[in-house]
Design goal:
- It is built from 5 helices and no strands.
- The longest helix is centred in the N-terminal third of the chain and has 41 residues.
């Protein structure tokens, strides 16, 4: 590249039409074009920044309209569900809770019966429904 540029400068200096000019050659041209490009980019940066900021504001509004940022951890998801339940609980909550207690009692009774019979099957079960749920959520199952 250096050889080509040196030959180019020799050509311009040897030519009677160009020998008096200082702004000749691809080196000068690339520098001039780079400075024009930098100027054009600098001129457009505020427009680009404004467009990006408007997009961010629009996305934040849309996210808020959809219910806000989503939960990314198990605890955050549980918290989000509990908040939603709390927000929508009303006069129907008491009957649902009563029904839920009845279902829980039935599950506990069935589980207690199965737990009592487990010794005959040779299988190990957690001693309570709560322990079984804990194991199903927090322990890997055997493949």
């Amino acid at each position: 590249m250096e050889v080509a540029r040196r030959k180019e400068l020799e050509f311009f200096k040897a030519s009677p039409h160009y020998s008096g000019l200082k702004n000749i050659g691809t080196g000068f041209l690339s520098g001039k074009l780079s400075s024009h490009l930098i100027g054009a980019i600098r001129k457009q940066l505020p427009v680009i920044q404004h467009s990006i900021n408007d997009g961010i504001v629009d996305m934040e509004r849309e996210l808020e309209a959809l219910g806000g940022p989503g939960a990314t951890t198990r605890g955050a998801m549980v918290h989000l569900v509990l908040q939603a339940c709390d927000k929508h609980s009303g006069p129907w909550l008491a009957p649902v809770m009563h029904c839920g207690r009845r279902v829980l009692k039935a599950v506990r009774d069935l589980y207690a019966t199965a737990y009592a019979r487990q010794a005959h099957c040779g299988r190990r079960m957690p001693p309570s429904v709560a322990d079984a749920l804990h194991e199903s959520f927090y322990h890997k199952r055997d493949a």
